[in-house]
Amino acid sequence: MPVGYLVPVALVAIGTLFALRPVPISRPLGRLGYYFGLAANELPFAAFFWLLLLPTALAFAEGDIDSVGGWAIVALAVVTTPGLAVIAHRAFGDRARMEHALDRGLGTGWRAALDADLAEGLRRRLPLARILFLPIFHRRPSVRRVANLSYGDAGRRNLLDLYHHRSRPRGAPVMIHLHGGTYSGGRKNSQSLPLLYHLAGQGWVCVSATYRLRPRVQHPEHLIDLKKVVAWVREHAHEYGADPSTLFVAGSSAGGHMAALAALTQNDPAFQPGFEDADTSVTGAVYLNGWYGTYFGQGPESSPLAHITADAPPFLVAHGDLDPAAPVTDARHFVDRLRRTSAAPVVYVELRGGNHAFDLYHSVRFEALVDAIEAFTALVRSQKRTAPHR
After folding, report:
1. How many domains is the chain built from?
2. Would residue 236 show up in a list of annotated catalytic residues for this protein?
3. Which of 121, 153, 211, 240 stands the most exposed, by the fewest C-beta atoms within 10 Å?
4. Checking DSSP bridges between strand 205-209 and strand 159-165, what pairing results, if any?
5. Residue ranges making up the domain that contains 44
6. 356 is catalytic
7. pLDDT digits (tens, 9 = 90+) for 44-66
């Protein structure tokens, strides 16, 4: 049996199976299935071309398909291909679903309400060449990353990376992103990089930060760290061309939980010990594949649900309907509560077939979501420009 041919085909077959039928992470094989299924779910084209089609062509060219075992591997590749096609079809369909979500959350005439300069900057087409050929490479020649700037006194757990356009346009809006990792792991410069590099290429200043992790610290210390990042940005980001009066906070998984808490507790001195007078208000929040419940069994005040008020900022929430780590029903419940209480726009994007951590790659799904996030922020910025100043 040609083992060199079997390995890539088997990896794709297993990944495709878990992408289509994910197992909750809490169950046996759940975490293993999550890692196998994630790449297949977000990179079906790369999986097909590089791990199915090319190895099959090489196996035929080298005469490896000369036994029952060889033909069995070919059969496995053949039956896996329709599964990848289903995954790709779902991902392409998400673009239309996002447009519908924007219409529902922002109003059907939202595009007409955009300022002309912001509407002009919105991307019209997906970067298909990058999606097909460079899905895991994020750097752009036009974007400079300034690494490991200190924002607090916790050493390497209080560092941030800042991304800005090399031309340093003045008055740039800011996007702060916090990584996931169950509050016990993860690192900056790892998640939502397609979003951060795209926005920085459009003239934004973007920040990705580390924060203190459990078990050394508990809630609300993580949230306090994020508040310190916001305070640092307001004090220093102008050095890189930013206007921090327009500041969005975002996060993935645990980082999304933290970002939502920060957006819903703006300027609350209880979460700003020693810097109570710092301005930690935000213009809006982007909540990606987030956790919505309490913090490891702590009281209800550790959940974003406990802090929803009528003056909550605009939110965009994106969640996969097949997320094995955070149930989609929790996302729906959070959005329903937020919509019934908040006076600000709430956009909810439910990704069909979406798994957890869908924001790692330049995939069809996440690039479409990047465009939706940019459109959401464009409307919020347009409304902010026309709002009466107090």
Report:
1. 2
2. no
3. 153
4. antiparallel
5. 3-91
6. yes
7. 999 999 999 999 999 999 998 98
